[in-house]
Amino acid sequence: MEVDSSLSFGLWLRRRRIALGLTHAALAECVHCSVSALRKIEGDERRPSHRLAERLAACLQIPAAERASLVEIARGERRIERLRELSAVALPPPLATVAGPRAGAAVPDARGAAAARDRSLRRLDALDCSAAVRQPERRRGE
Q: Class assignment of domain 9-87?
């Protein structure tokens, strides 16, 4: 990602998010902030807190050695031109994620999920059948 003179942290953030294939909602969930707050950061209407900047660095898959620099840039403590160094870092392949109880949880293969569901149903059927065998029906009058 090339850094030009008009680049801001918000624009860099937006480009990085898109390059990783993340939606506003997915990134907001990953960093534990609202979509509205994320849009304001991308629009340069506000700066992230120190903790939010750290979570952004992690979720945007910035190498650990570069995260402190990104936090300083995001907070306005370091010049924006330093993004050039971070931007040179190759982007990893995007992660398939699903919104759910764990942010960033990998989406299971559809065939694997169906096979697991079928195994579970067979186990339930077996339990149901074995329970019927163990407990004979009571006769009227007993």
A: mainly alpha
C-alpha to C-alpha distances, 75 to 46, 56, 104, nearest whole angstrom: 10, 12, 25
pLDDT tens column, 14-26:
989 998 899 999 9
Express each pLDDT in 40-72 by its tens digit. 999 999 999 999 999 999 999 998 888 999 999
Model-level pTM? 0.59
Q: In this structure, which amino acid lies at residue 75?
A: R
Which tokens is 31 given? 């960093």
All residues at 6 or more sequence positions from 11 whose CB lies less than 8 Å from its CB, including other chains: 42, 44
What is the rounded (10 degree) CA torsion for 19, 102, 34, 43? -10
What does the alpha-carbon distance between residue 142 and residue 138 come to, in Å, rounded to a whole number? Answer: 7
Distance between CA atoms of residues 106 and 54, nearest Å: 22
